[in-house]
Amino acid sequence: MDLLTMTWRDVGFMHWPVEPDIVQTTLPDGLAVDTYDGQAWLSVVPFQMADIRPRGSPIGRSFGELNLRTYVVADGTPGVYFYNLDADDRLSVTLARRLFQLSYYRASMQVRPDGDSVEFRSRRTSSRAPPADFHATYEPTEPPSTPEPGSVESFLVERYRFYAASDDG
């Protein structure tokens, strides 16, 4: 049963291939780097979390979010490992940290859509993690579509399990 409903808007998926051995050294025990054509991948994903709310609630919250992730396998199941997740909403950060043990941090964010492009700015304000700034302007490179099975696009987005280290490791 889904407890929350939400919509992602103004999403940017930015991906870089990285040597798998380098990524593996950054992962907690129990996670193995997943590769596509011999490459590991790091991704930065900025977006506007829109109308997140408990199922049945008439009112939701909207805020900017930014995550840094890589792609892993645990117990034979592919997933996403979040190095960190920054969000511009104190309540959501607190709840995600307490309920899901996710490494969320407070940040000040501006999401400015302008036609097809989006300007996204983030500055981490949390004292729990090192400072981090991000600024990008992005736009679609092609119309929305369902990724072809076996494609790099499918490898990067068709993941339904997530992992993150807690503050104590």
UniProtKB/TrEMBL annotation:
InterPro entries named in the record: ADC_dom_sf, DUF2071
Domain of life: Archaea
Region (Disordered): 116-151
Protein name: DUF2071 domain-containing protein
Organism of origin: Haloarcula hispanica
